[in-house]
Amino acid sequence: MAKARVAPTKLLSIPRMELSAAVVSARMSAMLRVELEMKIDEEFFWTDSQVVLAYINNDVRRFHVFVANRLQVIKGETNCSQWHFVDTSENPADHASRGLNASGLLSTNWMMGPSFLWQHELKLTSPPSAVLLVRDPEVRAAQVNVAITSDCDDMLDRLSRFSSWIRLLKVVARIRRMTSRQRHDSDHITVEEIESATEVVVRLVQQQAFSEERRTLEKGDSLPHSSPLFRFNPILDKGILRVGGRLRQSSLSQGLKHPIILPKSSHITELVLLHFHERICHQGRSQTQMELRANGFWVIGGSKSTARLIHHCVTCRKLRRPAEEQQMAELPEARVEASAPFTYCGMDVFGPFIIKRARTEHKRYGLIFTCLSSRAIHIETLEDLSTDAFINALRCFISLRGAVRQLYCDHGTNFVGARNEFKKALKQCDPKKLEAYLANKQCEFIFSAPAASHAGGVWERQIRTVRNVLNATLCVCPGRLDDFSLRTLFYEAMAIVNSRPLNVDGINDPRSLEPLTPNHLILMKSQIALPPAGKFVREDVYATKRWRRVQYLTEQFWGRWKREYLLNISLRQKWHKPRRNLKTNDIVIVIEDTLPRNQWQLGRVVETIQGTDKLVRRVRVQVTDRRLHGKSDPPFRTVILERPIQKLVLLLGNE
To answer: In sequence order, which residues have a C-beta less than 8 Å from that of residue 112 and are 6 or more positions away?
Structure first.
């Protein structure tokens, strides 16, 4: 059988077309082996291209993609030893590409094949020179990268894989023991071998870091002023650079009088610092440096190197690193824009207070609402800390003060339960009414991060003020109170706190205006006055253009509120600088105030929550559940906690 292919229209070189013909031959052989279904002992392939034979027999040079892909096909179907050279005059395949008529075809060996195939013994010939040319265009240019390294650099590169100074010295000591071929009675490393290994490692480090200084001292010359070792007045002792200093006349040991000099930027130096830092049980920088020098080492720039080591030490971070902090956030829009009283509120519960009903004592609590804009407060009484009691108190507050758009609070169980109750109630409402209710944003709960008491400073500060007023009031009547008396005290305290001045600038100036108080907006007066004396008739209720006076007083309040109060809260009291944001996969410790530090949980940051200024102040941390597991539960169960960064200690950052 015969097969021929027409050359493509794209211009190809002769060697490439010859190689494509060899690929056709290899594929035909694979097809015949499958279709004939007979045993074939041996196969032979002939080509009249010496370049193709050189390509096939090459095992050293690399080719471009065209040749490399076709050689892969040929070598996958055949062996290099099966390919042989045939002269062009005896190659019948050339007749298919030269174009012959019928009479000319009969005079060729197209039908019979080459003459050497009819002989009794097959004589295989090799090409005169089937050698691949170096400048062949199909051969890729070889790139040789020469790197000249010294034995010292190579050895230090191998030693950089160690993470322990003692383990490194033991390995070096054992290598020296094997090379010395001396028998040892004990398998343990002796002190002499450790000291010898230390000298070997130090010598390698100094040869790399202080090669110029060593050559200068070996010649007997003085070091230049630009050398980092100039102020140490170094000396060479058995090939090791040591601090010269002024203690030669001392009776101290050689290591204390002339400590070994180590460079500041070296992996070996870090191992030495870490070793002595762990030996003194992770003490501070001064103790680490003293331990280092007491053992005969002197690190150039040792103070900074030790401080950097302690800063990255995980154990030191776990024991002493402070909690994370971030720049104080911007004030929310509800605190810097004018709004109706108690439209945006913060709330919290304080107490308990002991009241007496008959002969039984009960606990009562106070629920405080703080207006974020006017800083007015409202106090309701709670019988207990249940969700039902809170919802009733909230409805009383809304009935007196009007609708509330947003309520800021912490993660109290009664607050969370109330939100869930409202969600269940909303599902039972008419869809149209529900859309209108949500459009007005009635009672939208906004929770701060769990355990983030600093996020509620607006209402926490008012609780302190209310407590001061209540303490002063309770001193007047130290006996037990009942429910009505306690509610009256709450309202009296509320009236007193709402009469406080928001700005004390100019309070001693008789020419200044009356200090601005929350009651200016709520009651249109700064304090509650007694009913005036006199007789009033019903017609006095209907004063003309009363709404204009109220509107004027309201505008006066907000104008003074912006000038006198709002500008006073613009400055940050603390946390002035932006810090590094916590990132996902950071390893942290979760601070728990009820547990000692060594029992705080280790966690991993799984999600960060950014503020409007792109700074992270609260994150979600994955920790192990501390509850006892049953036999059917998995051995490790994790939970996700949401915490402010002020309740976290960073151990390992995901840089």
So the answer is: 118
